[in-house]
Amino acid sequence: MTFDKRQVVYQIYPKSYKDTTGNGIGDLQGIISKLPYLAELGIDVIWLNPFYPSPQRDNGYDVSDYTAINPLFGTMADFEELAQTAKKHGIELMLDMVLNHCSTEHEWFQKALAGDPFYQDFFILRDAPTDWVSKFGGNAWAPFGDTGKYYLHLFDITQADLNWRNPHVREEMFKVVNFWRDKGVKGFRFDVINLIGKDEVLKDNPNFDGKPEYTDRPINHDYLKMLNAASFGQDEKGMIVGEMSFTDIPNCVQYSNPDSHELDMVFNFHHLKVDYENGQKWTLKPFDFEELKTLFHTWGEGMSAGNGWSALFWNNHDQPRALNRFVDVKNFRTEGATMLAASIHLSRGTPYIYMGEEIGMIDPDYDTMADYVDVESINAYQELLEAGKTSEEALAIIKAKSRDNSRTPMQWDASENAGFSTATPWLKAGKTYAAINVATEKTGPIFTFYQELIRLRKELPIIAEGDYKAAYQDSDKVYAFERQLDGQRLLVLNNFFAEEVEMALAEEFTKGQILISNYDVTALADTLILKPYQTLAIVLN
Ligand code: GLC
Asked: Residue 191: CB within 6 Å of ligand 1?
């Protein structure tokens, strides 16, 4: 199976894209209505967050039926229409597969609870819990009915981890993927897929909340090879990405090197923890540029050397908007948005755009905790109060870190609810929608810059295929890298600060061609002044 390295992915959180039924929740018809917009942007693949039946405790990542459509979002006919209409626009779909856990409302869990031993073996049941901490807070085990046993839930208590050691579970999971393949789907995003392979004996581990005991276990690779062979590996073309939690380069090389026959590419999150104090999410700290630069270089070179492949992204449905984290967004929203875009679209890997990023959407800036709905934020707020923070301090942290920041309604125009819905949206629209919306931004500098980056990737093989090499490693302001392919070179300079930076340009590059910049640049000299958040890419033939 091969995937096309020239392609760019656009992520849609269906619940927040476009509501056509007037219930305050986005739907599949809403996405269909926006396909011309996406075709204009130029993207090739749409990753859709889960739209399957689900009690929505974790917004659809708690699946209760893997092969149906949640009526909230529409019908199977709507889905088929979406897939066909997208194809007409040259766009393929990528579906989100949550195979590590299912909702406790799934019939498998219900049958298990009712005492059926066949289904009890679908879950991870033990007589005594380990000390592992759930990613959404608290211990990761909960009592399994009145059996005296405990079931594992690495996420919410209603998301029970599935027992992949059981061949029947694997068979069911393969069937799920094949169900959607039979509908013509060629792209898949596998949720926390490096957690599926649990050891037979589960051990306590006070380090990192127990993560090393269940993450990237060797058997995980075996399961991915099986999944590949039983499903998408049989397709000629497609795009398969795995979300890797708490991972490392050697494992990611193995997951994504084509010779392993596991996945096409991997998401890792290390670069989005550079504003965590002591690795803890619910803290406030300005981002650490040194750490960010070093991570990008180590991963860029490591993945390049091992022939692995990364999914490159700044935003997704689990992250606050990157503009609020990495940019002086009050003064340099446009420059910052375009620089961040170039820093990944010109790098080695497949770029992902999260809805709204292409118009420079920012965090909603809610005034009260009552506006937040995410289970993780609500739990974290309580824990912050219990740890002695005042309600103002706790709210300030939630405001900066909540996953709801990226889940707010897509901002289409300046009308009420940002043109997303005629009803009150399930999650309030961000404060800035009257100014930042598709109607005003579509001909503006951010959207058109994204169009240009997407176009360049299709035109220049060096962008899609070139190697990655760190450049200007000593710079404390500029993240720079070089791409190389068949003797051609591409230098990309990204100023991550709101001030000018002087740089010495290597003699040979002064004779290069300016490929793209977010400022007007007409000439190159051996001393360059990069403006605030300037990005500049130079090609040398
Ligand atoms: C992934 C998803 C996140 C979800 C979690 C559990 O990290 O991106 O939204 O809560 O997995 O499924």
From this structure: yes
Residues 230-279 pLDDT 10s = 999 999 999 999 999 999 999 999 999 999 999 999 999 999 999 999 99
Confidence band of 522 (pLDDT split at 50, 70, 90): confident
Q: Which residues contact 152 (CB under 8 A, 6 or more apart)?
A: 123, 124, 125, 126, 132, 140, 141, 160, 161, 198, 202
Give the torsion sign (CA, 328, 334, 337, 342).
negative
Ligand 1 contacts CB of residue 61 (under 6 A): yes
How many Å lie between the centroid of ligand 1 and the Cα of residue 192?
A: 7
The C-alpha atoms of residue 38 and residue 290 are separated, in whole angstroms, by 35
pLDDT tens across 384-418, in order?
999 999 999 999 999 999 999 999 999 999 999 99
Cα end-to-end distance, the chain, whole Å: 32
DSSP conformation letters of 284-297: -----HHHHHHHHH
3-class SS letters over 151-172: EECCCCCCEEEECCCCHHHHHH
Closest CA to 450 of 326, 367, 340: 340
Q: Is 470 exposed, middle or buried (0-12, 13-18, 19+ CB in 10 A)?
A: middle
Instruction: Tell how far CA 468 is from the center of its chain.
Output: 22
User: H/E/C letters for each residue in 344-375?
Assistant: HHCCCCEEEEECCHHHCCCCCCCCCHHHCCCH
Q: What is the chain's length? A: 541
Phi, psi dihedral angles at 333 (to 5 degrees): -60, -45
**Closest ligand 1 atom number to CA of residue 156:** 6
The two structure tokens encoding residue 325? 């984290």
CA distances, 458 to each of 201, 350, 351, 387, 451 (Å): 48, 12, 12, 51, 11
- How far apart are the C-alpha atoms of 158 and 63, rounded to whole Å? 10
Helices 218-230, 167-182: axis angle to 10 degrees equals 40
Cβ(136) to ligand 1 under 6 A?
no
- Measured between alpha carbons, how far is 165 from 421 in angstroms, rounded to an integer? 44
Distance between CA atoms of residues 515 and 121, nearest Å: 57
- Reply yes or no on whether 105 is catalytic: no
Tokens matching residue 8:
């760019």
CA atoms lying within 13 Å on the CB side of residue 74:
22
What pLDDT shows up at residue 2? Answer: 83
Query: What's the gap in Å between 448 CA and the centre of ligand 1?
Result: 31
User: Which of the listed residues 52, 58, 66, 102 should we mutate to test ligand 1's pocket, taking the one with most ligand atoms within 8 A of CB?
Assistant: 58
pLDDT tens-digit map of 280-306: 999 999 999 999 999 999 999 999 999
Residue 431, pLDDT above cutoff 90: yes
DSSP label at residue 234: G
